[in-house]
Specification:
heterodimer; A: 6-stranded parallel sheet; 8 strands; globular; B: alpha/beta; Rossmann fold; 2 domains; 7-stranded mixed sheet; 12 helices; 18% strand
Amino acid sequence: MASKKRPDSRPLPGDPALRRVLLHSMLLQRRFEEKVGEAYALGKIGGFCHLYIGQEAVSTGILSMLRPDDYVITTYRDHGQALARGMSPRSIMAELFGRVDGCSRGKGGSMHLFDRNLNFLGGHGIVGGHVPVAAGVGFAIKYRGGDQVIVCFMGESVVNTGAFHEALNMAALWKLPCIFIIENNKYGMGTAVERAAAIKDLSRRSEAYDGMHGEYVDGQDVFAVRESMERALGIARRESKPVLLEVRTYRYMGHSMSDAVSGTYRTKAELDEHLKRDPIALLAARMKEAGDPTDLDAMEQEIKAVCQDAWDFADASPEPPLESLYEDVLVETGS
Amino acid sequence: MPIITYREALNQALREEMARDDRVFLMGEEVAVYNGAYKVSKGLLEEFGEMRVVDTPITELGFAGVGVGAAMVGLRPIVEFMTWNFALLAIDQVVNAAAKMLYMSGGQYPMPMVFRGPNGAALQLSAQHSQAFESWLAHIPGLKVVTPGTPYDAKGLLKAAIRDDNPVIVLEGEMLYNTKGEVPDEDYIVPIGVADLKREGDHCSIITNGKMALVAMQAADQLAKDGIRVDVVDLRTVRPMDVDAITASVRKTNRAVVLEEGWEIAGIGAQVVDYVQRHCFDDLDAPVLRVHQADVPMPYAKQLEKSAKPDVAKTIAAVRKVMYLD
């Protein structure tokens, strides 16, 4: 956890090249999602669409520490993690546009991004439902004697579901290599965490399970997130034990596109306060302070072009053909 | 051919398939140390070890999800529910996860897994332990649903389910576990989606599935004494349903009774009747009748329970009615 001192009084971890990669990952998510918001307003994206803006240090911090053969599973707020895992902006945007070149061939949409090649096991739409699934992936890793881990992202409201308890209990009981990440962005839709959870420090839920390590970390500081994740990996990968990380962050947008940014369940003043700790601005400032070669403008230009290219690609991609309606309900199987 | 129980037939299927493919594992409540609440998994822990025969806490939602996750990354889980009544706690994993994963991932994640356990009423277990869920599960695209009624079908269908690359629901019958029948020693499967004409006759068709196949056969025996010859079409699989077998039989007999264990409204029988009216409209000599559970939660008292359940007498009465004998 960051100390009360100014966090930038500490030496900056990593080297300039790594820091640039982290900044690029976070900035790509931010600009991509701004583009998504634009496309949604124009009616190019339909259905539910949950933006991740403000939480980018979580996805980047966690996923930058993983190996390609590790597994990732997440919720319906999945664009940021998909990008941070390395999914192509084109395939994500095409999915959001409901096109055949989308990562899920236009069948999933915003809430269900999947990429088998990256072991990205999807965005899942039922709050809490994917947490036992993550335990199952952990079980399979152990079953095969592998040393991968599964990272399971969830919002803070998940800690109040039965599925969360059932999954963590089994993960602890069976010593499964699962890293459960609570992204505490303070609101489950419009309900503040303190109005929903009868516990303040959510990471303490780990105490209900013998041998499960739990900790919380500042989710606006990508280095703090990485440091926690390094500890988590040590436990999950080397000791094959589950870990519960609470990453404290903030979402700058509404719950979904139909939710006002502020005014109902939170004030503009509260939002403004959190905007002062924008994870991207914090990182950029610290890099500047450390004297890293600053090519922020060039990076912005490059990312802008990538996002526009994703949009153009998605726009040009055809809708899935009608004959695909009945495809992928079942696989052909020779029993 | 050896004569064994339905329970032993399921046990053979599990043992053979686990020996055949080391990605196959069994998990559920009491499946390992206790040898299964109904002893279906007897001896498997000893043979395959605790990684492949896994006792779970009483946590249906959780362990059904563990099965889903394991299937996503290449294992072939068999998830046992102590009864399907308890599976309601896990229905999110069955319906929202297992049945949808392939489709919503655009074909990337097949779900080669089995959810199995006893379904329907036993004796005097009352409202929460006596429900037949065929129609609930058959409603969901992305699932296959099989309901074996004999030891032969139990072994063959379970083996087919385990080898299938899709999520397959296996609805067993608690009252069937002790029933006996011929089961070959050799490896065989009963293909999913194929009905079985369990008895041939030309006066009326009884179309049924699962535990009710036994009731239909008993009804057929009694009807034969009065010279009434019935076809007994055991659907065996209720999703996908063998529409050809239904229509072939009804076109021959021109009369049909649909017998199912569950409730009437939106039941399996409603779907069968729909196929019959669409495909056999001009062949029918009488309206199709249905025999099913009374539209009430299952009562405890013996007389009330008997009255609520579909049975041989009700089936015979329905057959006689569609033949205009009564």
